[in-house]
C-alpha cells in the first residue's frame, strides 16, 4: 500500500455512506439520496457564507422568527435552500426548522420516510464579523407510512437514525453519525466533494476546557455556579481549566469534540429551560457526543431521553468529555 495510495482512496461522503448503507440493504439508497441533498445545501451555504460580505449577504432580513430573533439575510437564505433541497429529495415527509414557526408537511407526491429537523444557520450573531457559523441537522425515520402527524417528529433524540453538522470556518467541515461512531469530512473546493479527513472521532475522556457564556453567571443555579467555580479554582490542586466560548454552538461543540472539555448552556433565572432548542440543537449535538464516547445531560436527565412536547422547545444542556459531564451530574445529584 504505497504512501500515496491514500491519495487515490478518495473517500467522499457519498461513497462512505453508501458503504455504510450497504450494511443496511433495506435502506435501498434512500438515506444516501437524502444525505446527498443535505450535502448540496451545505455546499451552497458554504459558498454563500464565504462571499457574504462581498455579495451584500450580511445584515438583517428585516423579519423576526418565532424565537423572537431578528432574522439575518443568511438565516432566511439558508432556510429556503435547505427546505427546497429536502423537499426535492423526495425522501422526507416532515421538516422542522428553527426559522419556520410551523413544521413543513411535504406534499404526498414528494413524500418519503424521513423527518428532518434542522438549524439552517447556527451562530447568526457571528455572521457579520466572519466568525465560524454552521448548520445542524437530525434525521428520524417515520415508523409507519400513514398520514404524517406532528407527533411523528416529537420523538426522543435517542430515536434519531443520524445527526450531523456542517461548520463554515477556515475550512468547511461536515461531521456525521449514522449511529455507528462519528466521522468528519472536509470540503475540497477544487472537487466540490467532502473528503473523509477525521475517521472515527472519539472525544477525549477528560478535557482542560470549559465553554459557557460567563455573562449569565448572576442567573445560574447552584450546581452550575459550583461547577464553573471548580473549573476556575480547582480544590484538588489540578490546574485551572481554560475558558473558550465562540458563541456559535457548532464551533464550540466541534472544538469540544476534537479537543475534549465541556460545553454548557445552563438554565438560568431569565430562561428556566436555557436557550438551546431541543430538536435541532440539543439532540443532534448530544447524539454526536454520545457516539464519540462522551455524554450529554440536561441537568435532570440524559439529553437523548428527553421527549419534546413542542417543536421549538428549549432545554439546558451540558455535553462533552465523559468525565467532565460526570462531574456536573454529581453536582446536580447533590442539588436534588
Ligand atoms: P442561532 O444562531 O441558530 O439562533 O443559535 C445561536 C445559539 C448557539 O449557536 C450558541 O451556542 C448560543 O446561541 C449563544 O448564545 P449566547 O449569545 O446567549 O451565549
Ligand atoms: Mn436563531
Ligand atoms: Mn442555533
Ligand atoms: Mn439558527
Strand order in the largest sheet: 4-3-5-6-7-8-9-10
Helix proportion of residues, in percent? 25-40%
* Total strand segments: 15
Q: Rg to the nearest angstrom?
A: 20 Å
Bound molecules: 2,5-anhydro-1,6-di-O-phosphono-D-glucitol, manganese (II) ion
Question: In whole angstroms, how far apart are the ends?
Answer: 57 Å
* Shape call: globular
Strand content: 15-25%
DSSP helical segment count: 8
Structural class, from helix and strand content? alpha+beta
User: In this structure, how is the largest beta sheet organized?
Assistant: 8 strands, mixed
Write the H/E string, N to C.
Answer: HHHEEHEEEEEEEEEHEHEHEEH
Mean pLDDT score, rounded? 93
Task: List low-confidence stretches.
Answer: none
Task: Please give a structural write-up.
By secondary structure, the protein is of the alpha+beta class. 30% of the residues lie in helices and 23% in strands. It is built from 8 helices and 15 strands. α2 runs antiparallel to α3. The chain starts with a helix and ends with a helix. The mean pLDDT is 93. The structure holds 2,5-anhydro-1,6-di-O-phosphono-D-glucitol and manganese (II) ion (MN) (3 copies). One manganese (II) ion (MN) binds next to β5.
Amino acid at each position: 500500500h504505497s504512501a500515496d495510495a491514500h491519495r487515490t482512496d478518495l473517500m467522499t461522503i457519498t461513497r462512505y455512506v453508501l458503504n455504510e448503507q450497504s450494511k443496511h440493504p433495506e435502506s435501498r439508497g434512500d438515506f444516501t439520496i437524502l444525505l446527498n441533498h443535505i450535502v448540496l445545501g451545505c455546499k451552497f451555504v458554504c459558498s454563500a457564507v464565504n462571499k457574504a460580505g462581498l455579495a451584500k449577504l450580511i445584515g438583517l432580513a428585516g423579519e423576526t422568527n418565532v424565537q423572537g430573533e431578528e432574522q439575518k439575510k443568511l438565516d432566511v437564505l439558508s432556510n429556503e435552500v435547505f427546505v427546497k433541497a429536502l423537499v426535492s429529495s423526495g425522501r422526507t415527509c416532515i421538516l422542522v426548522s428553527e426559522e419556520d414557526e410551523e413544521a413543513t408537511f411535504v406534499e404526498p407526491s414528494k413524500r418519503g420516510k424521513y423527518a428532518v429537523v434542522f438549524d439552517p444557520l447556527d451562530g447568526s450573531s457571528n455572521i457579520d464579523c466572519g466568525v465560524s457559523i454552521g448548520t445542524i441537522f437530525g434525521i428520524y425515520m417515520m415508523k409507519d407510512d400513514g398520514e404524517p402527524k406532528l407527533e411523528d417528529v416529537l420523538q426522543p433524540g435517542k430515536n434519531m437514525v443520524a445527526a450531523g453538522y456542517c461548520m463554515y470556518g477556515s475550512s468547511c467541515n461536515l461531521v456525521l453519525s449514522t449511529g455507528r461512531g462519528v466521522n468528519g469530512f472536509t470540503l475540497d473546493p477544487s472537487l466540490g466533494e467532502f473528503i473523509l479527513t477525521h475517521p472515527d472521532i472519539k472525544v477525549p475522556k477528560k478535557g482542560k476546557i470549559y465553554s459557557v457564556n460567563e455573562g449569565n453567571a448572576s442567573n445560574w443555579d447552584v450546581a452550575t455556579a459550583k461547577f464553573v467555580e471548580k473549573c476556575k479554582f480547582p480544590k484538588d490542586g489540578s490546574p485551572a481549566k481554560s475558558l473558550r466560548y465562540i458563541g456559535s454552538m457548532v464551533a464550540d461543540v466541534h472544538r469540544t469534540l476534537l479537543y475534549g472539555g465541556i460545553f454548557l448552556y445552563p438554565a438560568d433565572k431569565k430562561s428556566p429551560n436555557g436557550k438551546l432548542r431541543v430538536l435541532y440543537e440539543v439532540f443532534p449535538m448530544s447524539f454526536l457526543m454520545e457516539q464519540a464516547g462522551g455524554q450529554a445531560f440536561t441537568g435532570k436527565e440524559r439529553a437523548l431521553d428527553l421527549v419534546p412536547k413542542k417543536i421549538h422547545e428549549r432545554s439546558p444542556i451540558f455535553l462533552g468529555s465523559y468525565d467532565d459531564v460526570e462531574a456536573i451530574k454529581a453536582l446536580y445529584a447533590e442539588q436534588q
